[in-house]
Amino acid sequence: MSNSHITATGGCLCKAVRYQVQGPLRDVIACHCTQCRRSSGHFVAATATRPEHLTITEDRGLSWYQPPDLYKRGFCKLCGSSLFFVSETGAEDKISIAAGSLDSAAGIKLAAHIFIEEAGDYYQVSGDAAQVIGGGHAVKMPDHN
Ligand SMILES: [Zn+2]
Ligand SMILES: [Zn+2]
User: Fold this and answer.
1) Distance 141 CA to ligand 2 centre (A)
2) For the CA of 40, the nearest ligand
3) Which of the chain's ends, N or C, has fewer CB atoms near its CB within 10 Å?
4) How far is ligand 1, taken at its centre, from the CA of residue 4, in Å?
5) First to last CA, the chain
6) Which pLDDT value is given to residue 2?
7) Which pLDDT tens digit goes with each residue over 15-49?
8) Do 43 and 32 contact (CB within 8 A), yes or no?
9) Is residue 70 situated within a structural domain?
10) What is the pLDDT of residue 5?
């Protein structure tokens, strides 16, 4: 495999999970829903890529939690880092990746806040990014050829 097409690398805090992306990354969406806030400790900021563009290069720590009717969450069972989010239906043809797990910014930016009605009352959602009630954001997956 050539390294020339790797667009991003990342992983968990303890390096027991590492991944690389060989395709475009979507801009970042911050999800303020109750599940994301509880599992992450604050709120979740995630980019996304097509599943076929994500390669897990180290999975020693990778574990998955599947709440009923909610996104499946990939995390490191050794250090607790949140890493991946997958629709339980598999219908979306994308995998979301915790933006904080990227090794570098990879040219993406925060584009929207979703589920702002569930945001904690200890902070304000602010800044230039769109703010959406519910999950119906307008941030598109980048075209991939
Ligand atoms: Zn880890
Ligand atoms: Zn959420």
Assistant:
1) 18
2) 2
3) C
4) 26
5) 18
6) 47
7) 999 999 999 999 999 999 999 999 999 999 999 99
8) yes
9) yes
10) 80
How remote is the C-alpha of 83 from its chain's centroid? 6
Question: Which ligand is closest in space to the CA of residue 82?
Answer: 1
**136 CA → ligand 1 middle, Å:** 31
> Can you give the CATH number for the domain in which 98 is found?
2.170.150.70
With a cut of 90, say whether residue 128 has pLDDT above it.
yes
CA pair distance 98, 77, nearest whole angstrom: 16
> Which residues place a Cβ less than 5 A from the ion ligand 2?
31, 33, 36
Compute the distance from residue 86 Cα to the ligand 1 centre, in Å.
Answer: 19
Total of domains in the chain: 1
Q: What is the pairing mode between strands 110-114 and 28-31?
A: parallel
Encode pLDDT of 44-101 as tens digits: 999 999 999 999 999 999 999 988 878 899 999 999 999 999 987 666 789 999 999 9
Q: Domain of 37? A: 3-131
Q: 139 lies in a domain? A: no
The reply to whether 126 falls in a domain is: yes
